[in-house]
Predict the 3D structure of the following.
Amino acid sequence: MEFKRVNLDNLEAEHICCAITEKKGEICVSSKKQWLRKRMEEGLTFLKLDERGKVFIEYLPAEAAWAPIEAPGYLYIDCFWVSGKYKGKGYGDALLEECIADGKAQGKTGLVVLSTKKKMPFISEPGYLKYKGFIVADTCEPYYELLYLPFGEKAPVPKFRHSVKNTVVPKDGWTLYYTNQCPHTAKYVPILVDVAAERGIAIKAIHLDSREAAQNAPNPFTTYALYRDGEFLTNEILSEKSFMKKL
């Protein structure tokens, strides 16, 4: 089972697993790699199967995470994905074991990850994580759970920040918060804005372009969070077709 660490030396040449690979997806690839490059300078690790498949884990010190959480001393799992023909072959377990070993080697307190009460698109699966020993540290509406795996009995319990417990978003119209943590936002956010404009619908797309902005975001999933009239709608990155269904 061969895993490869994507780093600043090989980032440009490596396939980053979830990015679109066709020419039409070049903006997705470049935006994700630009985001990764800056996060790697802050301690992010990107570990993947040495294949052109969606088998990888991405994590960084929780203090540097683009998420509204408080988890000093922990590693935050940004993205953890095994899909398609690679499922059921032990790759997920092996990647998680590598992450745990790395955290302990760094002297970290444990692992922390954003999940949900039931499986949701684009977010780590709660059933698997709880099976592997992760515990619910905190919750917030409408379905988010902050899970953690402590390395010791005295490890402090992580929590969500105040901004997601007392959400403040515009009460009129559509509002979208997003980052470039996922390559698909570079493609689908402009599509969403254009499709809405064609129908006379104004959407305020707020790009969380700094760690400070993300850590004070109103939604735990800073990659993509869509609201209408102040009410949360979805964390799923919408295509034109799926947005029309929402309308």
About this structure: The mean pLDDT is 93.
